[in-house]
Amino acid sequence: LIKHAEQIVQVCANNEDMLVGEAMKNIAVMKPEEGTSGLSLVIDREGNIADFGTDAKLEAKYANWSFENVLDASGCCLLPGLVDAHTHPVWAGDRVHEFAMKLAGATYMEVHKAGGGINFTVEHTRNASEKELFVLFKERLQRMVKAGTTLVECKSGYGLDVENELKMLRVIERARRDDNINIEISSTYCGAHSVPKGSTADETTDDVISKQIPAIKAEMEMGKLHVDNIDVFCEKGVFDIMQTRRILEEGVKAGWRINFHGDELNPMKAAELGADMKACAISHLEEISDNGIAAMASARSVAVILPTTAYILRLRAPPVRKMIESGVPMALGSDFNPNAFCLSMPLVMHLACVNLRMSMPEAIAASTINAAASLGRSETHGSIEVGKRGNVLVIRAPKWEHLVYQLGGQNDIIAAVVCRGKIA
Ligand code: NIG
Ligand code: FE
Predict the structure, then answer these.
(1) Domains identified in the chain and CATH numbers
(2) Which of 4, 103, 114, 168 is the most buried (most CB within 10 A)?
(3) If you take atom 1 of ligand 1, which residue's CA is the nearest one?
(4) CA angle (22 as vertex; 20, 23 as ends), nearest 5
(5) pTM of whole model > 0.95?
(6) Does residue 309 line the site of ligand 1, with CB under 6 A?
(7) What is the interface pTM, i.e. ipTM, of the complex?
(8) What keywords were assigned to this record (predicted)?
(9) 119 in ligand 1 pocket by Cβ < 6 Å?
(10) Nearest residue CA, atom 10 of ligand 1?
(11) What order of strands is seen across the sheet that includes strand 2-5?
(12) 162-177 vs 130-146: helix crossing angle, rounded to 10
């Protein structure tokens, strides 16, 4: 039981699976009636939301329930647990030296072509054991939880061969099954994240299709692994449109949702490809075309916008306003990776509002219900609805907008993070 709250942000009120266009501006916020004490929320033993409403109503209704935990949320607001739609959180080594190079003017692709970037991380990740990677990963997940994330998409993609991609997916799986880690995970296979040293894009595509995917499927059939999504870095000099299509098709055959990187540094018509393939989500989209915008809107493919990357690499901003106004469903992600070291969705929302001109309601919708939709989970996640997962963020502030407003201070006002009914 959480009681005496000032506001409950529901994000969407009618069990909608995502919020699009104007609807993103009208998120539902419940407030106590004049002269009454506050709002309460009840989570059942299965970890799902059982009820919410005024203190008075819930006190009467649940008078003979015995609660395992009672949280006093006086002076606090309740929001749905945040959903981070895009991260690369399993890796060893860091790239702080590259941050200096980029500050001095080097572009992402210059660093990449000089053997840095993803391939630098691949080398360190290949040399790390499963156990070492798990320790690093777990610490990062815990930092995400502290920043309010309760569901996160996690990619492989720093292994780039059968053995090392499996190693990364096993690390993700171990965290998924660990009861001491209070965050839910959607796992993504991204074996086509880069072309490994000594190989070509065509050879890598063949390796992904004929070796890596079958090996993962075999482990899934044995019940050892679970994979939700398939990803490719569709980019000039990495994987082209044809290679991307082949890999995504193979992923669909394996039963995975399409959720890939497109139109980031160069216009590739990746949005058009994704819409044509009924992609669940496409990330980045700084260089999306007008046709791509129209295609994504009609396919209802979710655009996963990553404000940290555009900020750090000083890229052209993705045309967020145009996309929202054209009816493209929009989500946000931290893109946590060694290039963009950010574990905080509140900071991501802040950047989205200031740099990409989103409103605060749009940013919270994009970080909850729409991010859940990008992972195919909006029936169970992303809003405060009876029957949905008991993932709730409690912030010490009189209005929920403080979570976006307090630049860099967001963690200080997070009073509690509840995941599946457990205080994380
Ligand atoms: O989303 N663009 C490709 N992948 C990541 C970067 C990964 C890396 O640089 O290690 C991204 O920004
Ligand atoms: Fe990424």
Answers:
(1) 2-79+384-423 (2.30.40.10), 82-374 (3.20.20.140)
(2) 168
(3) 335
(4) 60
(5) yes
(6) yes
(7) 0.96
(8) Histidine metabolism, Hydrolase, Iron, Metal-binding, Zinc
(9) no
(10) 118
(11) 49-54, 39-43, 2-5, 71-72
(12) 50
